[in-house]
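Narrative summary of target 7.
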Amino acid sequence: MRATQLVQVFAEVLGVTVEVRDEGGLIRLMVADDGIGGADPHAPGLRALSDRVAVVGGRLSVTSSPLNGTRVTAEIPLTRQALGE
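Modeled conformation, tokenized:
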């Protein structure tokens, strides 16, 4: 997944957590790290990821503060569009 690639390149992390949950018609995918934080959701990599999620009707949120790591969460509805049908 692109979010884990971005972590490797920018975050200077010791650990990464990846969670995937089926929440009744919605898939929630979360990638969190314990890195340096300060991620800019408008930077090219995260913007491209947000655009990809939006194409299938989902949304991406980024929570990041200096020295507290970053959490990227994608919420994707299980629709025919998201499933490529």
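The CA atoms of residues 56 and 82 lie 5 Å apart.
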